[in-house]
Write a structure and sequence with these properties.
Blueprint lengths: L8 E2 L5 E7 L3 E11 L12 E10 L4 E3 L9 H18 L4 E4 L10 H12 L1 H7 E7 L2 E4 L8 E6 L2
């Protein structure tokens, strides 16, 4: 994808990335890949799965907060930056699957998941060249279909 992205700083193990979102204000963003038990999302135990999480750095909790809505005016650039971290991650963990869904407070509509899905729909052709995409429905995992609603997503690097 030829989208504008922010420059990131990666941890040595390529599991954490930091960048600054520069819009109405400057916000430190964190992208974190954490190992996930595949059974937790209905997959066989031999599959290596990492959760892709990201949010704003929160000094109060000394960690990133994925519940904050920044509205900093640079959503596409932030999402392109997060997506771009997968390239470095997969250099280190080439056979890993990435699981993600939008976070939202309990009881609210899954607006972030919808936002991610809309961007994947828009850039499906480009994403599909480098990654296999799966969507989670009420009945399980399936190959991603553009314009179909999903609960969560799973992507793997193409061979």
């Amino acid at each position: 994808m030829k989208l504008e992205k922010y420059t990131t700083e990666a941890s040595i193990n390529k599991l954490t990335y930091i960048f600054e979102s520069i819009g109405q204000k400057t916000i430190v963003k964190v992208v974190e890949y954490s190992k996930l038990n595949p059974a937790f999302i209905g997959l066989p135990s031999e599959i290596k799965v990492y959760n892709l999480g990201f949010g704003d750095w929160d000094d109060a909790i000394k960690d990133f907060n994925d519940q904050i809505t920044s509205n900093n005016g640079d959503t596409d650039k932030v999402l392109a930056t997060v997506a771009n971290t997968t390239n470095e991650f997969w250099e280190e963990y080439p056979d890993a699957f990435l699981y993600f869904k939008g976070s939202q407070p309990l009881g609210e509509k899954p607006l972030r998941t919808r936002l991610y899905q809309m961007r994947m729909n828009r850039y499906f052709t480009e994403i599909n060249k480098v990654a296999d995409i799966f969507g989670l429905t009420d009945t399980g995992w399936e190959i991603f279909v553009v314009d179909k609603n999903y609960i969560a997503f799973l992507i793997s690097q193409k061979d």
